[in-house]
Model the fold of this input.
Amino acid sequence: QVQLVESGGGLVQPGGSLRLSCAASGRIFSGNDMGWYRQAPGKERQFVASISGSRVGNRVGILNYADSVKGRFTISRDNAKNAVYLQMNSLKPEDTAVYYCWASGGYWGQGTQVIVSS
Done:
């Protein structure tokens, strides 16, 4: 059984920062790629950021970002804790969405709400 649990969402003013955390349990290992997606009201879920896992033949720690968050968001992981983080700076109202943690193999968290509003 795999479980991903997000935390750290909330209400923040434009220009502010939030740090999302995702704790993984079960058959999740350091070899899994992990990342974040988001879904705004009335829109499809979209990719935000990902970080590659450690496995044979794979480059570790490759980062990918959506163009809309490059330079503002930073993804990181702590394999010892089976956790992945998303540091979000210079937040904009258009960043408002439910943010979902993802792990390769088709695993998803339940989501955490981020609202950017004055």
